[in-house]
Amino acid sequence: MSVLARKRRRDLHRRRFQYSAVVLTVFLGVALFGASYDAFRNLDASYNRAYEELRFANLTITDGDVDSLERRVESTPGVEAVEARVQADLPIQVGETKLLGRVIGLPAGRQPEVNRVDVKAGTYLESASTDGVLVEQHMADHFELDPGDRVRVHGAGGRREVEVLGVAASPEYLWPARSRQDLLPSPDDFGVVFATEALALELAGVADPNQLVAYYDGGRPNQALTGQLTAASNQAGAGVVLTRAEQPSNSALQEDIQGFQELAIMFPVLFLSAAALATGVLLRRLVIAERPIVGMLRACGFSRAHVIRHYLGFGLLVGLVGGVLGAAVGFLLAGAVTNLYTSALSIPVTVTQLSLGTVIVGIVFGLATGILAAALPARAAAATPPAEAMRRFAPARGGRSSLAERAVPPLRRLPPRWAMVMRGVGRNRARTASTALGVVLALVLILVSWGMIDTVQILVDRQFTEVDRQDAQLYFAEPLDRAVVREVSGTEGVERAEPAVQVPVSLRRGTHSYATTLVGLEPDTQMHGFLSAGGGETELPSGGLLAGEALSSELDAGVGQEIRITSATEGADAGLSTRAPVREFLDEPLGTMVYASLPAIRAVAGPAIGIGNVALVRYEPGADREAMRDRLSRLPGVVAFEDTRALLETVNQYLGLFYAFVGVMLVFGGAMAFALMFNSISSSIAERSVELATMKASGAGFGTLARLITAENVLITILGIGPGLVIGYIVAAVFMDSFSSDQFSFALQMRGSTLVLSALAILGVALLSQWPGLRAVRRIDVARVVRERAA
Predict the structure, then answer these.
(1) Complete DSSP assignment for 451-485
(2) Quick one: which of 548, 503, 495 has its CA closest to 521?
(3) CA-CA distance, 783 to 773, in Å (whole number)?
(4) Fewest CB atoms within 10 Å of the CB: 216, 485, 518, 715?
C-alpha cells in the first residue's frame, strides 16, 4: 500500500463518523432518485402495457351524428379501429345502496376493437344472455359482487334486474373517475357496468349509439390526426371530444406519474447538494488541519498532482460507496412502490424492470457529488507553497468586533464569553456560511414535504366545509317539484333541503372547448360556498356564470366574456343551449365547474327540467349518517344517493399512499439534516481543538466550553433558519403549483405552526448533532495538544 493510500485509510478511520454521515447523505439522495425515477418508469410502463393490451382509445367522441362520423373516422388514414357504442349515466342499486352509475355497451360474443375489457372472474358477455352484465372491478370489490349476483339498473323503462356474468378491468377506469370534475367519487356513489349493446340501448332509452371511440395505428399519439378528427367531430355536432390525455382516468394517473417524475429530480438534487456541501466542508477542514503534512509531502517530492489525487480520493470513495448502496436500495424500493401502487389501484398489469440506466446515473450522481465537492479543497491543498504549509498554523489575522457589536455598540459591554460567541460566528465566515447553508437545505426539504401535507389537508378540508356544504344529494327518476322538496325537508333528521340542477355540458369560446358540469343553485343557497379567486367569498349572480379559475386558461376567457353552453346529455335538459358571460372566477380545490342561478337555468331549459333534478340535503347536528342514508334512499322517486362524507373518506383513503410517500420524504429530510449538521458541527469542533485545549488549560471547565460551543452553534443555526424558512416556502410554493391543473388547484397552503415547528426541529437537530463533538471536547488531552503546538 502506498504512503498516501495508507494515510487516506487512517484518515477515514479517524473521522469515520463524519464520513459515514456524508455517505448516508449521498446514499439517501441516490436511493431516493432510483426509487422515485424507477417507480415513475415502472408505473408508466404498467399503464402503457395495460393500454396496449386493452387497446385504450386515443379519442373519445360523445353525442352528435355518431353514425356518419363513424364512417368518416373509419376511413381516415392513421385510424386502426373504431367502435360505436352506448354510454349512459343511470341509477344502479346494489342491495340497499342506490348510486348514480354508468352503463357502457359492448358487442356480444366478442371483445370490442377499442377499449377491451380484461375479465378477471366469470365470463364475457354472450348474446344469449339478454340480462347479463360485467361489473367493473372497483365496484365489484367494494360491493363484494361475484358472478351470479344480481343488481338493479334504473333505465328508460324503469328498474331492471340484471345478472353479474363477470368482473372486468377496463382501461377507462384503472382510476375509477366519473369525470374530470369528479375524479374521486365514493365507491358507494359511482360504479360501472358493461352490458351488451342491445341491453345498453334499451336501458339508455336511445335508438342508436351515442359515443365513438377511435384507436390510432399502434395506439401511438398523433397530434395532427387528433386535430383533424376533432374538427370533424365539432362539425358533426359532437358534445364532448376527449383525447387519451384528457380522459379522466388516464389524466388522474398521469398526474400521479408526473408527481413521481418531479420528486425523482427535486428531492435527490437537494440531498446530493447537501452531500456535496458536507463533503466539501469536511475535506476543507481536513486540508486546514493537515497543512504541515501537505507541506512535508510537497517538500519530500510529491507533486501537486499527487496531492490533488489524494484528496480527490476521499470524495471519490464517499461518492462511490453512497452511490452504489443507494442505487441498489433505490431499485428495491422502486419495485416495492410500484407493486404497492398497482395493487392499491387494481392495475391489471404490473411492470417492474431493472433499469441499468437509472443505476448507472445514480452511481454517477454519487461519484460526481463526491468529486466535485472534493475538487476545491484538493486544489487549495496543492496550491499552498511547501514552506508556508509546513507552519503548524496559518498566519493570524487581526481580530475585530463582530458585526452585531459594530451595529449595536452597547453589545460591546456584554460579558467576555458572549463576545467570544458573537466574534466566533464571524471569525471564520466560510465555516459559518457552510453550517448556515446546511440549515437552509434541510429546511427546504422539510418544508417542501410538510408543505405538501399541509396543502392537501387544508384544501380537502376547504372543499368539504367551505365549498360543498351539503351532507348528501339525492337523484330522482323525474324532474323535481316543490312537493318532493318539501317531503325531503320533512324527513326526520333533515335540517334543510334545496333543489339543484346538475347538467354535463360542453363549454365553447372561439376554437376552445371544455367539458364540465353546469350546477344550478338557489340564489340564496346554503349548500355551496363560492370562494373568489381574488380572495374572500362571493355570491351567485342572478345572471351570468361563476366559473372555476382554470377555465380562464382552458377557454382563454376573462371576466365579462361570453361562453357558449350546450348540454351533453339525453333527456329533459337536452335542449339546454345558451350563451352567458363569466361574472367571476372561483378558487375551488377539486374540479372546474360553472355555476348559475336556478331561475336563470329554468328560463333557458323550460318547464321540462322542473325546479331541478337533484335535491341537496343538510342533516341536523348529530344525525346518524347511515340511518339517514337508509331513510332518504327509501323516499319515493329517489334512484341514487350520494354521501358527501363518504366522498371525503374516499379522498382520504386515496391520500393514504400520498401521505405515506411524503412521510418517507420527511423522515429522509430529518436524517439529511442530522447528517449534515452533525458533520459540520463535529468538524468545527475538531478544527478548534487547539483553541479549546488552550482554554481548558487556562482553567475553563467542560461546562463553560460546552455552553460556548452550544451558544455559537445555536446562533449560526438561527442565522440559517430565517433564510431557510423563506427559501423553503418559495420552493414549496413552486413545487405545489406544478401539480395544479383543471382537476386540482394546489396553491401552497402552509400552517404557521409548520414554520415554527420546522424551525424548532432544526434547533433540536443542531443540539443533538453536537453531542458527539462535545464528548470529544471532554476527552481533549491538553498535554498532547500543547506538545503538538510546540512542535
Answers:
(1) HHHHHHHHHHHHIIIIIB--SEEEEESS---HHHH
(2) 503
(3) 19
(4) 715
- Most confident by average pLDDT, 15-19, 128-132, 463-467: 463-467
Q: How far apart are CA 204 and CA 199, in angstroms?
A: 9
Per-residue DSSP letter, 490: T
Report DSSP letters for 312-364, one per residue: HHHHHHHHHHHHHHHHHHHHHHHHHHHHHHHHHTT-S-------HHHHHHHHH
Cα separation values, 207 from 91, 200, 349, 672, 701, Å: 20, 10, 36, 64, 95
Reduced to 3 states, what is the DSSP secondary structure of residue 500?
strand
CA distance 9 to 233: 72
Distances (CA, A) of 598 to 501, 593, 612: 7, 15, 8
Check residue 789 and give its pLDDT: 57
- Whether residue 190 contacts residue 102, with contact meaning beta carbons closer than 8 Å, is answered with yes
| 8 Å CB contact between 452 and 259 | no
CA distances to 185, 515, 649 from 590, in Å: 12, 15, 15
Q: Please count the helices (runs of H) and the strands (runs of E) in the chain.
A: 24, 22
* CA 448/CA 134 separation, integer angstroms: 44
Torsion angle in degrees (nearest 10) through CA of 648, 654, 660, 661: -130
Q: Which three cell numbers stand for residue 509?
A: 369560446
pLDDT tens-digit profile of 433-446?
777 887 888 888 88
Please state the domain extents for the chain: 1-56+256-395, 59-85+206-243, 87-203, 428-467+645-791, 478-636
pTM, two decimals, is: 0.76
Residues 327-371: pLDDT tens digits? Answer: 898 888 888 888 887 887 778 888 888 788 888 888 888 888 888
Cα dihedral 55→56→59→65 (10° resolution): 70
Q: For 59-85+206-243, CATH number?
A: 3.30.70
Q: Which amino acid does the sequence have at 95?
A: G
3-class secondary structure per residue, 112-157: CCCCCCEEEEECCCCCCCCCEEEEEHHHHHHHCCCCCCEEEEEECC
Number of Cβ atoms within 10 Å of the Cβ of 618: 18
Q: Which residues pair with 103 in a beta bridge?
A: 88, 193
Residue 109 has pLDDT above 50, yes or no: yes
Mean pLDDT of 545-560: 90
Kindly calculate the radius of gyration of the chain based on its CA atoms and give it in whole angstroms. 34
Inter-residue contact 473 to 500 (CB < 8 Å): yes
pLDDT at 397 over 70: no
How far is 603 from 501, CA to CA, in rounded Å? 13
Question: 246-259 burial, b if ≥16 CB within 10 A, otherwise e?
Answer: bbbbbbbbbbbbeb
**Has residue 480 got a pLDDT over 60?**
yes
Tell me if residue 401 falls in helix, strand or coil. coil
Listed in order, strand segments (DSSP E) in 235-313 are: 240-243
CB count within 10 Å of CB 566 equals 19
Q: What is the SS3 string spanning 501-552?
A: EEEEEEEEECCEEEEEEEEEECCCCCCECEEECCCCEECCCCCCEEEECCHH
With beta carbons less than 8 A apart as the criterion, state whether 762 and 447 touch.
no
Question: With bands split at pLDDT 50, 70 and 90, how would you rate the model's confidence at 375?
Answer: confident
Nearest to 183 by CA among 406, 499, 516: 516
CA nearest 171: which of 297, 303, 48, 86? 48
Residue 112 has pLDDT above 90, yes or no: yes
Backbone angles phi, psi at 81, to 5 degrees: -155, 150
* Dihedral angle, C-alpha 719, 724, 726, 730, nearest 10 °: 160
**Tens digits of residue pLDDT in 493-510:** 999 999 999 888 888 888
